[in-house]
């Protein structure tokens, strides 16, 4: 059941939309009646998601770390949606590695996708939103951007950058465009599953006051709220959704 009537027919782009938080968010916006296009680098996953979710308006293969790919992706999205009202810039990767074992190639790849991707996608979206003097930009950051975690130096640095990018854009584009970052803690996504054994997951759960990981759908609910009129006075914020972990 739709909760936010004002999101009906809003034009939404979700990057990294073929899995995890991105997919849950795309499906939730579609449930609210929004017209949703998803970007993802994985063509096969994209095709499968679109086949299984006919309420999504479309999908485009995009490498968010590549300027030309992003530019072309937004042009294709324009053809499908006729513009953009909400960007959920979500695509990201992480590599579990001690800093001393991480090489420059790994560092560059993580920063290129997690931070450069946010720059490139928000640039395209904001150039369109400026003309209509309205819009919402939402970044997927992380509690890793708020406090340090071992094994993730590049990921931590990228997410801290995302938070400050979002805060800066909020200042530069107010009062017409709102910009916020969502900072998930541990979320049970395919990416998390690939990095953690069951034993590691349970050990993490014991350190979280809520004693469990978040679901992608819980994070999606926060994105939808922040895009709605109920969040009309919220901008320049980075909002943890972490089961109390950072408390």
Task: Kindly describe this structure.
This protein is α/β, with parallel strands linked by helices and 247 residues long. The chain has a single domain (5-187, 216-239), classed as NAD(P)-binding Rossmann-like Domain (Rossmann fold, 3-Layer(aba) Sandwich). 46% of the residues lie in helices and 15% in strands. The chain has helices at 20-31, 43-52, 67-81, 104-132, 153-173, 190-195, 198-206, 216-227; strands at residues 11-15, 35-40, 58-61, 86-89, 135-140, 177-184, 238-241. A seven-stranded parallel beta sheet has the order 3-2-1-4-5-6-7, with helices on both faces. Strand 4, helix 4 and strand 5 form a beta-alpha-beta unit. The radius of gyration is 17 Å and the shape is globular. The model has no long low-confidence stretch (mean pLDDT 97).
Keyword list:
single chain, 247 residues, alpha/beta, Rossmann fold, seven-stranded parallel beta sheet, globular
Distance between the termini: 33 Å
SSE pattern, N- to C-terminal: EHEHEHEHEHEHHHE
Portion in beta strands: 5-15%
CATH superfamily heading: NAD(P)-binding Rossmann-like Domain
C-alpha geometry = globular
Q: Averaged pLDDT, please?
A: 97
Structural class: alpha/beta
CATH topology: Rossmann fold
Q: How many beta-strand elements?
A: 7
CATH architecture verdict: 3-Layer(aba) Sandwich
**Side-by-side strand order of the widest sheet:** 3-2-1-4-5-6-7
Helix content: 40-55%
Radius of gyration: 17 Å
What is the number of independent domains? 1
Low-confidence stretches: none
What is the name of the CATH class?
Alpha Beta
Instruction: Note the main sheet.
Output: 7 strands, parallel
Q: What's the number of helices?
A: 8
